[in-house]
Amino acid sequence: MSEDKHEEERRSRSTEAFYGRRLGRPLRETQAEQMEEGLSRLKLDLEAPAPADIKTLFAKQVKEVRLEIGFGGGEHLLHDSRVNPETGLIGIEPFVNGMAKLLAAIAPQRGGEDWPATIRVYNDDATQVLDWLPDACLDGIALFYPDPWPKKRHWKRRFVSQVNLDRFARVLKPGSLFRFASDIDTYVNWTLEHCEAHPAFEWQAKSAADWHTPYENWPGTRYEAKALREGRRPAYLRFQRI
């Protein structure tokens, strides 16, 4: 595909999958400054062609690259970067306050280190990044506690869909995992049905307990904590790219 055609398709899909609100409480001055600087240093530039080797997107050499869609306040992304220092992580979060929280947590302190060398971010629709990335370049995709859109008339807004699973299949390497976590039964069932019907994905559960077993080195998130307080049992699904 030519670069012009690729850019045309990316722009045509610019708001395809994001329906949530963009801003909660107004940012404090320090948060706004950290946000501006952090995005200037870490945000992916989708106006430029994606590199053939996306490991070169990072300021230090990494062995693999994974994508987290909708990282919320960044709890899992931060934990992942600490326990996997040789993994490049791309985090996507359109909600301004969530992005601000992550960037505040990783902003260099006075006299401290620079911005993280293994994290890149994007603050808009995840489909833009998925369409920009080259084929078979990712070692994993995570979608944890996405907006469940509980009303049936809104289910079409759920991020897990045939078209987005097609996107995942294109950018994931064979053998890599798409991980999905949620405490909303209808969305868990929705995801199982869509992934089971997709020829590129295979559910990795081997026993009845598997889908209620957290991932290895799972730190938990504030959404999960709320679900547990309110009596909802999260599910942790793993789908392998065939």
UniProtKB/TrEMBL annotation:
Write down the chemical reaction(s) this protein catalyses: guanosine(46) in tRNA + S-adenosyl-L-methionine = N(7)-methylguanosine(46) in tRNA + S-adenosyl-L-homocysteine
Q: What class of enzyme is it?
A: transferase
Q: What does this protein do?
A: Catalyzes the formation of N(7)-methylguanine at position 46 (m7G46) in tRNA.
Source species, please?
A: Limoniibacter endophyticus
Protein name listed in UniProt: tRNA (guanine-N(7)-)-methyltransferase
- Extract the PANTHER family matched here: 3-DEOXY-D-MANNO-OCTULOSONIC-ACID TRANSFERASE/TRNA GUANINE-N 7 - -METHYLTRANSFERASE, PENTACOTRIPEPTIDE-REPEAT REGION OF PRORP DOMAIN-CONTAINING PROTEIN
What gene, per UniProt, encodes this protein?
trmB
GO terms for MF = tRNA (guanine(46)-N7)-methyltransferase activity
Question: What EC number(s) does the entry state?
Answer: 2.1.1.33
Instruction: List cellular component terms (GO).
Output: tRNA methyltransferase complex
Q: Which family does it belong to?
A: Belongs to the class I-like SAM-binding methyltransferase superfamily. TrmB family.
